[in-house]
Each structure stands twice: as C-alpha cells, then as structure tokens.
C-alpha cells in the first residue's frame, strides 16, 4: 500500500519577475517525499519558480489544516484530473472564480437624460429635482431609502455643504484619520428628496460658469446615489471595507469607488460576475445605484437575486489587475508617443501617429520581456528604432542587440551597450539615422 499513489497538496507561491501569486500544488504520488521530487521536476521542465515551506500533505489532511473552506470543492474538482499521465496540477485560488462568469449580464444598466435640453432655467441658484431621476431614487415619495456617497475632495463646498443638524452623515474614514482628511474624504449621507442638499447635488451651473467651483454640484463627479433599506451603520461598515482592497497577489490598493467614473468602469467590468457583484452590493444590501454622468445619469439594478449568490472575496482578482495594467500601459505608451513627438518634431515627417505608437508598443514588449522597465529607456529604444527604420531587436543583422538584451546586464548597462551598437551600425553604413541625435 505504501507504493499506491494518492493526492497530496501544499500551499505555495508562484513567482514571476518581481511578482508572486498564491497557489496550491496538487501532486499524484505514493508519499510526501516523492511528491516533493515531482514538484522539483515539474519546475525544471516548465521553467517555473515555486516557493513552498511545508511538506505536502494528503489532500483530506490538507483540507483540515490549511484550506479555505470556500476553496475545498474547487480544489477537489481540480484534483480529479490527476493521474499517472498528469501527476501535478497548480491550482490558482484567486483565478478560479473567473469560471463563474455568466453568459448574460447580472445588472441592468440604463442611461437616462437628466433634463430636457430645451428646459428653461429659472432665476434661482439651485434647480428643482429633475422628474427623470425621482422614480429611480425616491419612488412613490419613499425618501427614507436614498443615500449618497460624496467625495469631499470634488468641491470646495464640501463637507460644510452637508454638515447640518437635519441630515445624517458619516465619514468613511475613522477616528483621527477622518479628522485629518476631513476635506478630502468620502462620506455616506442619508438623502431625503425634500432636503435642500439634494437640489444642490442635482443642480448644474449657469451658462458661462461651467468651469467655476460653484455650489451646483452635478458636473463635478462628486460621488453616487444608491437605494437601500438597511440601517445607516450597516451601510457605513459595508463601504468602509472597500476603501482599501487587497489584490490576488496580496498587495493593498486604494479603491476610489466613490468616483463615479471609477465605479462605472468597475461595474461594467463585473456585469457578468455575480459573485463579485454580490460582494459589492452586499447581497441585497444595495437595491440599485445611480451615477452622475455629464448631462445623463446611469442606473444599475440587479436582474438576479444577489442575496442567493455566495459573494466573492473582497479583492481585485487577476483578470481585473490584468485589465488595470493594460489600461495603464496604454495610457503610458500613448503619453510616451506624445513626448517623443514633442521632443523630436521631425518624427512627423517620416511616420504617422499610428506607426509611432506601434513601434513604442513593440519596444515596450521587448523591454519587459528582457527585464527593462524604465519608461525613459523604452523611449530611447523607440527613438533608435524609428531613427533607423527598423525595430531594435531586428535592426542588427548579427543579432548582437538581441544578445545584449538577453544578458544579465543592468538596464542602464544594456542601454549603454545598445546605443553603442547602434552607433557602430550607423558608422558602418548598415543602418541610417534619419533623426540625428537620439539620446533623449
């Protein structure tokens, strides 16, 4: 019986570059020592870096001592694929929930015009609540269940604008931090339709005053509205849990969900992820959400019973972080292309904007593949590529530049050696520099 294979499991960290991600390694082996050997062989074959500190345990014993209860069934399901032919599986706890994606959205998103553009503006400082929004926030004059999250940083009129005796409010920060960040913190406010503060939030500036920080708040991305029948303190505790969210790889990020642009992007990304939505909506804690958006407002309402859904862990999962990184990189590379056009106007004589961005993106990918992350270095390599009309990793017929990229040199050393190689190729007439000096 000692030689009969069984399933072992051990917690580990999968390392990639400077990042790590939690993993559970599942091994089909006759004992713990051979399970460790199989992990070593698997790492060598697949060129992976796995760190683990405990001895692999039989699966059921691992469940008793280490496993998150919510992960037991997914891990058990994954382990059924183990066999003599497939002796090791790496289960990624923070990725499995992506398979919970539904085929259709779990939220109904509606975009509604706030006011008729032909509506005449009265002589008063503030406007009456628009008829368009009342059915979404105060149906049948139900004023007890409308709340608003307001970001005090969005207007000089906050928080004094809502610090009144007849309105219930609380800062999402606590204690000394709440006092220290009083003028830039987000606040939870219970908002009756009859309160004058509601008119301030829904009012737009007069013509010619659009860029002034006046007391009319609608166009300032101040926050969002929502409906709930829960107690004020329960809602306060719920939103406080989202101020800082961990990532799947155990970093901590501020989450500016109180910015309506951020929240719209977040909810749109999770439309088909019921467990993620159940976490943010608190099951049935939040009935619906309304976001200001220019001349419109956006309404989100669940079309599935989120209270019947097991909520996901409150964190940014890998698929979300991948989207964040892609968006950040797109913005960074577009900015880099802009900077290059400003620094080297002659570029526009040889290339259109799309070509320049493609070269910048290619150099970014090559650099990251070889451990180069500084934006300035990526910019110089992009300029060198554009100068000679061939991207840096194929500009050299002897592939000497590739050898430098693949070396163990530091970023600055690689930059120095590659610039020197470009100069040599130009002196030999192998490449022609169209742009002149490209040191950046």
Automatic annotation (TrEMBL):
Residue ranges of domain DUF4123 in the record? 146-269
Note the superkingdom of the native organism: Bacteria
Protein name listed in UniProt: DUF4123 domain-containing protein
